[in-house]
Amino acid sequence: MSPRVGPSGPLSRERIVTAAIEIADEAGLEAMTMKRVAARLGAGAMSLYRHVADKDELIGAMVEQVTGEYAYPDQDGLGWREAMHVLARQDWAAFLAHPWMLTATATVTPPFGTASLAAMEWALTALEEADLPPDAAARVVMTINNYVQGSARVVLGDRQSEVGDDPGRTWQHRLHDVDLGDFPRLSRLIAHPLPAGERDWFIQGLDVILDGVQPRQSP
Fold first, then answer.
1. What sequence ranges are listed for the domain HTH tetR-type (predicted)?
2. Spatial contact of 32 and 40, defined as CB atoms under 8 Å apart
3. Could you tell me if 4 and 41 are in contact, meaning their C-beta atoms sit under 8 angstroms apart?
4. 219: part of which helix (H) or strand (E)?
């Protein structure tokens, strides 16, 4: 049987995944339905199931494709701490470029395809320099991932701030007109606002996490 042909050629898993990512980027993950993907490809909805079993499998393939778009550098001469910065920056870029990834990675079983496994292997390899037990190394990677996801949710969910703005400064601004008479420490904090454009809040937060890794190294 010849493959189903749409306006742009034969239907394939790659074309289906690409179309699904485009829809999710434009309108969110909830808007990405099999019917809508099929319509974009000029195909019948049922024809998609010849290439993906269901929507969950499609979402997993979307996560895998986005993960594969980010190349990790060679680790020669790259310290474990710098490698964790690379890991966090890669995830941060992916979440900001594809906000639906936040929902996809939290609600769908990870695909554990080649790209996802390679990313995890890269991170764990980098942490061997820190001489951590395997479970502690895994915890470091998970904690960084949770930090990146949480930061991305704050930034993407705050329509009043720019992506590069410091959430701490936004928080201070919102408390400026609040009566803090019974909260002296908060009052002192608000009295000394964070300077705009003079620090990278995302990296500073990451460094707080990484500072806690060093003491866990073996003697």
1. 10-70
2. no
3. no
4. none
Least confident of 44-48, 82-86, 87-91, 201-205: 201-205
* Contact between residue 92 and residue 148 where contact means Cβ atoms under 8 Å apart: yes
Q: Coil, strand, or helix at residue 129? A: helix
- CA distance linking residue 90 with residue 94, whole number of Å: 6
118: Cβ contacts below 8 Å, ≥ 6 apart: 72
- CATH of region 71-216: 1.10.357.10
Specify the pLDDT at position 2: 35
Alpha-carbon separation of residue 10 from 2, 5, 117, 138 (angstroms): 9, 4, 30, 42
Q: How far apart are the first and last CA of the chain?
A: 64
- pLDDT higher than 80, residue 158: no
CATH code given to domain 5-52: 1.10.10.60
- Confidence (pTM): 0.80
pLDDT of residue 12: 96
The first and second tokens of residue 28, run together, are 């969110």
Q: What's the pLDDT score for residue 91?
A: 93
Query: ∠ CA 58-62-65 to the nearest 5 degrees?
Result: 135
Count Cβ atoms below 10 Å from residue 219 Cβ, excluding itself: 3
What is the spatial distance between Cα 29 and Cα 155, in angstroms, rounded to a whole number? Answer: 18
